[in-house]
Write a structure and sequence with these properties.
Strand content: over 45%
Largest sheet: 7 strands, antiparallel
Distance between the termini: 23 Å
Shape: globular
Number of helices: 0
Radius of gyration: 17 Å
Structural class: mainly beta
Order of helices and strands: EEEEEEEEEEEE
Number of strands: 12
Length: about 150
């Protein structure tokens, strides 16, 4: 019977592509492809964001073929009174797959800090595939959204 693989150190973790970004203190609401000004983690520098690159596209590009786990959290802007907002995880500029990875929130009172939205997904990516977050309406721009991910296998 084959023996399970055993790791004797954690040094391999230094090479696993992973990132965690935040909106920072933009001060204004954001919509469309989201910009990330705060870098909390960017192992391998595969997330190109406005805090680290002069030609930022605010997306993660897969350096190797594999399965990647992504997570997103954002707060709707309080000015979006009872509006429907959709945030999507886009792969190579389009919803993946067929508009299935999204989150909608409706009905809340203006003047309050908007409700939160979450997206979590594990996706197969090829080398060079890129991932971004797109929102149809405004999210709170002052430390109001975060995006992270990592290679899982």
């Amino acid at each position: 019977m084959p023996q399970p693989m055993r790791r004797t150190s954690l040094s391999h973790l230094n090479y696993i592509p992973r990132f965690y970004m935040g909106s920072g203190s933009a001060g204004s609401a954001e919509s469309g492809y989201l910009a990330f000004n705060n870098t909390y983690l960017n192992i391998g520098s595969h997330f190109n964001n406005s805090a680290t690159q002069s030609s930022a596209n605010n997306r993660f590009t897969a350096p190797v073929k594999g399965d990647y786990y992504f997570h997103f959290h954002g707060f709707l802007d309080a000015s979006m009174n009872n509006a429907q907002n959709g945030c999507h995880l886009y792969v190579n500029g389009a919803d993946w797959p067929s508009k299935e990875i999204r989150n909608y929130t409706t009905s809340f009172s203006s003047g309050n800090y908007g409700p939160g939205m979450n997206i979590m997904a594990t996706l197969p990516l090829e080398v060079g595939d890129y991932v971004q977050i797109y929102c149809h309406h405004t999210l709170h721009g002052n430390n109001g959204y975060w995006f992270g991910g990592n290679l899982v296998g």
